[in-house]
Every structure is written in structure tokens, then in C-alpha cells.
Amino acid sequence: QVKLVESGGGLVQAGGSLRLSCAASERFFSSYSMGWFRQAPGKDRELVGSINWRGDSTSYVESVKGRFTISRDNAKNTVYLQMNSLKPEDTAVYYCAARLGAHEYGFWGQGTQVTVSS
């Protein structure tokens, strides 16, 4: 069982930056691919981006490309989401999730609120 705990959310003005962290309890963390999702009020959950187990391959939804960066430190069992040039439409609860191989994301954090004011 992988336990994930997000941190780093908060209130920021448009154009600002935040760095989210997701700490994993699993000592085999480096075996998992990780994803960052978000869900805004009244909207479906959206995959923001993902990173493979080695950390050498990432992908992003078009709306955050060039602004968000996912990275991981397997020695610290932690994955990060660096968010720059934030926009009000980035406001959402952000979740990290883990999966093994091609399986669905089966482990989820509790989420952290990000609010971007205009």
C-alpha cells in the first residue's frame, strides 16, 4: 500500500509560482510512475502531467506545457510539480497518484488546494 501526502498548495496571484510536493511512504517508490491531477469545482478530474519511474520522461496536458514541470527524487521518495506563470484557471485541488507499469493509477493522495487570484 502506497501512502501519498501532498503539500505546498496555497493562494497565489496570477503570474506567480508554487511548488507542490508529494511524499510517498513506499520504499519501492522508484518502481512507480507518478501523475499529478487536478479537479476544479464543477469539472472533471484532469491529468496535468506524469513522470516515469526513472524520471527521464514526462508528459503534460497542453494547457500547462511550458509553465509546469514535474520532477522526482527517488532517494527522497518525493515527486514535485513546479508551477510557474499561474493563471486563475489553474485553480483546483491538486492530487498526486501512483501506478505500476501500464496499470491505472491506484494510489492517491488527499489533495492540496491551489487558488490563483486575478
Describe, in plain words, how this protein is organized in 3D.
It is a single chain. It is built from no helices and 11 strands. The protein is mostly beta strands. It has strands at residues 4-7, 10-13, 18-24, 32-39, 46-51, 58-60, 68-73, 78-83, 92-100, 107-108, 112-117.
Q: Which percent range describes the beta-strand content?
A: over 45%
Overall spatial form: globular
Radius of gyration: 13 Å
Number of strands: 11
Q: Determine the fraction of residues in helical runs and give it as a percent range.
A: under 10%
Structural class: mainly beta
Low-confidence stretches: none
Q: Please trace the helix and strand order, writing H or E for each element.
A: EEEEEEEEEEE
Distance between the termini: 40 Å
Arithmetic mean of pLDDT: 96
Largest sheet: 7 strands, mixed
Task: Give the count of helical stretches.
Answer: 0
Give a summary of the structure in a few sentences:
Helix content is 0%, strand content 52%.
List the SSEs and their pairings.
Blueprint: E1 4-7, E2 10-13, E3 18-24, E4 32-39, E5 46-51, E6 58-60, E7 68-73, E8 78-83, E9 92-100, E10 107-108, E11 112-117
Parallel strand pairs: 2-11
Antiparallel strand pairs: 1-3, 3-8, 4-5, 4-9, 5-6, 7-8, 9-10, 9-11
Describe this protein with a few key phrases:
118 residues; mainly beta; 7-stranded mixed β-sheet; 4-stranded antiparallel β-sheet; 11 strands; globular
